[in-house]
């Protein structure tokens, strides 16, 4: 599955980016460039789905892809998928259900959610059997504190809490495919039943450890989506305080600051002065805002006529290379304007 | 004050003390300094945990084992005692500040030895009321101990600085040499000695010679064909744990096997440990990283696929078997040239003489006229391939000779030559000593006498006779061993019933 994800991303990059940009997206680098790449190439679902991925591990996998001839580099050192690789993508289309990844929204909260969930299951399952001494499988103090507080409320009737939790979790698992459900349950720890390690799951499923991590993350994203859609109260209680983060606009912290200033009526030049940053940096922020906020008014920077002109050029050049578009428009517009239209246009296309 | 047995029951739920615990605790509660050796698994930690709960003030435990710290903090918290914490290099700055600010509020504080080098920590320790100062793994203070830690040598100054709180020095393995050395190193502390025998009369010893290391795999398979009992197999190499675990998995469908070594990430390590404790695993292939803080009483079989570097480690590892006092077996597999692996390990434990010489010329060339030059010892580690242990060893020398100060300034050159001769002598001496220790273990493997007698003779004069079978040289053959076999834990592979048993363990299927 991990291989499939990388190939899928490479294919989306359309030979316009270095392979490192995929690493940054998967790892979830909070940089303007990465956020723009994720938006521009419609890879936002994968943003930050593998934050613990080390560069060396990523390189190892991509080197294998290179050696087996599934990807290759063009003379600009940009990466593309070969015919063999494309065949693999076609053969496995739909198989991994990667469309359910929603990194932009869930990456921030999925860890907290699953730690709370697993620790609650482990704790309640043991305590209900009157076993108060056990080694917790989650080590974060914040999550332990959360479970402690949660326990204060549930302790009077742990049994019925667990029955409810079981019912709701079962309903979710029945809504997804069998092997994902099996993997999810194999990972859980409860009374006298310890979950399997990633290494063991990999062996059991004849997959790589990367694959297992991706499959679990995908299932956790689906779980969150399910909770958001159906809102079963008992499951909602695990993420109530987190859901506000989910719909936070997808931008860097710096861009967010600029956005807050502009909401107060400051212009680009004002922000340049106030924040003591370069104009180009603030322009980057505006582009980020255009991606993140569909309602953002960009008429201040570009008129309707100009917008249509640039949009047409982008369309005709089915290519996102800025310099080409700029040249095609006889240098009538600057990069900032083109990127702004691209950001907005992208949203319209999607 | 209430009777110690009552407190033990009240705080820990145990009715009686194990051998030695009560005597040690009474002494330290009485303000007497104690040096104690207790066999592995005899419940060393109760000796300071109970006083921590009973005494006014803070109990400080110095221990080099980070995993032990974490486990014990966890265990105490599980028991509902929250005034427990640890200070070590893994704390964030913020955590450390919070802990330090509230240090006097804790009952039990674990410290890594390097924390005692931290002036802020020391200043804070002086201010609080220390009811007991525990030196865990006290053999680390002895240069003859199998795990010498240069930082431990500084404990002397620390104890002096803290104005002699009550000291409890604890260790599981200490030969009379090492005991003497601990007492010499801490000469200002008048110790009461509590020395308890470390021999294990319920473990049968067997050494199996094979002609080639491939035969070890075959042998293990044949053993596992006959015995399905909680088993640990020790290796010196991470790769080999994985390889053999795979072989066993492929050979035995019904056995649950896992490997464990320092490269696994923390959450996987926790899971594997717990699976073993819960009898979900039958066989674990591990390096010495596994075992610290493992408290499983019914391990029946310990196999050494590779030998460690000395008898002390071997005794500790095989001693994980049969804590429940039931009949257990230790098998050591030996093939020709097996001594090379521990030899290489020993060599890697010390910095090479060449690297020392190169480092010394670097320092020499730094500056002849200026008095203070800033340096970064971590850079040395990179350029000369020093491990963390090497670096600490070297820095201690440079500091002792007044060459290095505050870990970053070279302040004098005058004793550089002297220091070089001394460190080279020390390295040679240590390496001779370690080779000697390895030879003791190798000699034990080839002894013709009783293995039990030979294994423990360095540690104690009286050795109990074997409770069950003694050893291969006293007529034991593996076929005579008939332990109770385990029922294999078969994981149901139906996620719905699995989910039910995890989330609703109280629900019984008919």
Supply database-style keywords.
heterodimer; A: mainly alpha; Arc Repressor Mutant, subunit A; 3 domains; two-stranded antiparallel sheet; globular; B: alpha/beta; seven-stranded parallel sheet; six-stranded parallel sheet; 20 helices; 16 strands; 43% helix
What would you note in describing this structure?
The complex is a heterodimer of chains A (about 350) and B (about 500). Chain A has about 350 residues and is mainly α. Chain A folds into three domains: about 1-105, Winged helix-like DNA-binding domain superfamily/Winged helix DNA-binding domain (Arc Repressor Mutant, subunit A, Orthogonal Bundle); about 110-245, no CATH class; about 255-350, Orthogonal Bundle (Arc Repressor Mutant, subunit A). Chain A is built from 19 helices and two strands. Chain A has helices at about 1-15, 20-25, 30-40, 55-65, 85-90, 105-130, 140-155, 160-175, 180-185, 200-205, 210-230, 235, 245, 255-265, 270-275, 280-290, 305-315, 320-330, 335-350; strands at about 70-75, 80. A two-stranded antiparallel sheet of chain A has the order 1-2. Chain A is globular, with a radius of gyration of 23 Å. The relative contact order of chain A is 0.10. The mean pLDDT of chain A is about 90. By secondary structure, chain B is an alpha/beta fold. In chain B, helix 14 (about 340-350) runs antiparallel to helix 18. The mean pLDDT of chain B is about 90. At the A-B interface, helix 6, helix 8, helix 9 and helix 10 of A face helix 4, helix 12 and helix 20 of B.
Helical/strand content category of chain A: mainly alpha
- Helix % of chain A is 55-70%
What would you report as the Rg of chain A, rounded to the nearest angstrom?
23 Å
Number of strands of chain B: 16
């Amino acid at each position: 599955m991990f291989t499939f994800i990388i190939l899928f991303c490479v294919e989306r990059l359309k030979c316009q980016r270095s392979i490192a940009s995929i690493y940054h997206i998967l790892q979830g680098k909070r940089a303007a460039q990465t956020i723009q790449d994720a938006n521009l190439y419609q890879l936002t679902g994968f943003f930050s789905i593998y934050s613990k991925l080390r560069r060396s591990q990523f390189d190892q996998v991509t080197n294998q892809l290179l050696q087996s001839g599934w990807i290759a580099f063009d003379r600009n050192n940009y990466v593309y998928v070969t015919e063999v690789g494309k065949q693999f993508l076609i053969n496995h289309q739909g198989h991994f259900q990667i469309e359910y990844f929603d990194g932009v929204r869930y990456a921030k909260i999925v860890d907290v959610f699953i730690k709370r969930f697993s620790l609650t299951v482990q704790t309640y399952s043991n305590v209900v059997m009157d076993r108060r001494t056990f080694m917790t499988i989650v080590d974060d103090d914040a999550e332990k504190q959360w479970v402690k507080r949660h326990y204060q409320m549930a302790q009077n009737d742990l049994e019925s809490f667990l029955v409810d939790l079981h019912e709701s979790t079962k309903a979710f698992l029945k809504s997804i495919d069998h092997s994902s459900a099996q993997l999810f349950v194999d990972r859980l720890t409860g009374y006298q039943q310890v979950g399997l390690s990633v290494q063991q799951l990999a062996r059991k499923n004849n997959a790589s450890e990367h694959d297992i991590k991706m499959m679990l993350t995908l299932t956790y994203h689906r779980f969150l989506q399910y909770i958001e859609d159906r809102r079963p109260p008992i499951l909602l209680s695990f993420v109530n305080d987190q859901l506000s983060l989910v719909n936070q606009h997808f931008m860097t912290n710096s861009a967010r600051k600029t956005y807050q200033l502009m909401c107060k009526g400051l212009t680009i030049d004002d922000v340049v002065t106030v924040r003591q940053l370069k104009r180009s940096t603030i322009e980057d922020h505006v582009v980020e805002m255009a991606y993140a906020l569909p309602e953002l008014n960009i008429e201040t920077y570009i008129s309707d006529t100009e917008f249509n002109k640039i949009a047409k050029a982008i369309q005709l050049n089915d290519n996102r290379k800025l310099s080409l578009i700029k040249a095609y428009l006889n240098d009538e517009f600057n990069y900032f304007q083109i990127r702004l239209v691209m950001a907005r246009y992208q949203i319209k296309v999607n | 004050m209430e009777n110690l047995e009552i407190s033990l029951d009240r705080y820990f739920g145990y009715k009686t003390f194990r051998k030695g615990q009560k005597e040690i605790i009474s002494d330290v509660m009485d303000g007497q300094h104690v040096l104690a050796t207790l066999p592995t698994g005899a419940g060393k930690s109760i000796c300071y945990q109970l006083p921590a709960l009973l005494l006014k003030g803070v109990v400080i435990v110095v221990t080099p084992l980070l995993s032990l710290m974490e486990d014990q903090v966890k265990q105490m918290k599980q028991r509902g005692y929250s005034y427990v914490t640890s200070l070590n290099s893994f704390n964030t700055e913020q955590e450390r500040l919070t802990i330090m600010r509230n240090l006097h509020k804790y009952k039990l504080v674990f410290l890594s030895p390097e924390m005692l080098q931290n002036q802020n920590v020391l200043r804070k320790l002086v201010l609080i009321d220390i009811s007991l100062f525990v030196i865990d793994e006290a053999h680390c203070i002895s240069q003859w101990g199998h795990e010498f830690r240069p930082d431990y040598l500084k404990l002397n100054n620390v104890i002096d600085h803290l104005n002699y709180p009550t000291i409890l020095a604890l260790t599981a393995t200490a030969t009379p040499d090492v005991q003497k050395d601990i007492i010499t190193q801490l000469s200002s502390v008048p110790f009461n000695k509590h020395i308890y025998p470390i021999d294990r009369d319920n473990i049968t010893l067997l050494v199996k010679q094979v002609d080639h290391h491939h035969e070890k795999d075959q042998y293990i398979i044949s053993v596992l064909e006959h015995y399905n009992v909680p088993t640990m197999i020790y290796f010196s190499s991470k790769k080999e744990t994985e390889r053999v675990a795979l072989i066993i998995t492929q050979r035995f469908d019904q056995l649950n096997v896992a490997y464990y070594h320092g490269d696994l990430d923390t959450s996987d390590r926790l899971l594997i440990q717990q699976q073993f404790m819960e009898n979900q695993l039958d066989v674990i292939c591990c390096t010495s990283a596994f075992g610290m803080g493992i408290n499983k009483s019914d391990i029946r079989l310990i196999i050494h696929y590779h030998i460690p570097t000395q008898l002390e480690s071997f005794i500790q590892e095989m001693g994980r078997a049969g804590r429940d006092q039931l009949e257990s077996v230790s098998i050591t597999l030996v093939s020709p040239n097996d001594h090379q692996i521990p030899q290489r390990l020993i060599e890697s434990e010390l910095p090479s003489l060449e690297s020392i010489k190169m480092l010394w010329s670097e320092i020499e060339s730094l500056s002849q006229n200026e008095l203070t030059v800033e340096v970064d010892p971590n850079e040395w580690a990179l350029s000369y391939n020093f491990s963390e242990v090497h670096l600490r060893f070297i820095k201690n020398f440079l500091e002792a000779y007044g060459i290095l100060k505050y870990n970053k300034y070279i302040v004098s050159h005058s004793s550089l030559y002297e220091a070089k001769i001394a460190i080279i002598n020390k390295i040679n001496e240590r390496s001779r000593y370690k080779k000697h220790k390895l030879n003791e273990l190798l000699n034990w493997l080839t002894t013709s006498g009783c293995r039990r007698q030979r294994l423990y003779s360095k540690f104690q004069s009286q050795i109990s006779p074997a409770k069950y079978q003694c050893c291969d040289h006293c007529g034991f053959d593996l076929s005579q061993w008939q332990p109770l076999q385990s029922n294999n834990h078969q994981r149901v592979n139906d996620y719905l019933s699995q989910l039910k048993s995890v989330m609703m363990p109280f629900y019984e299927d008919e």
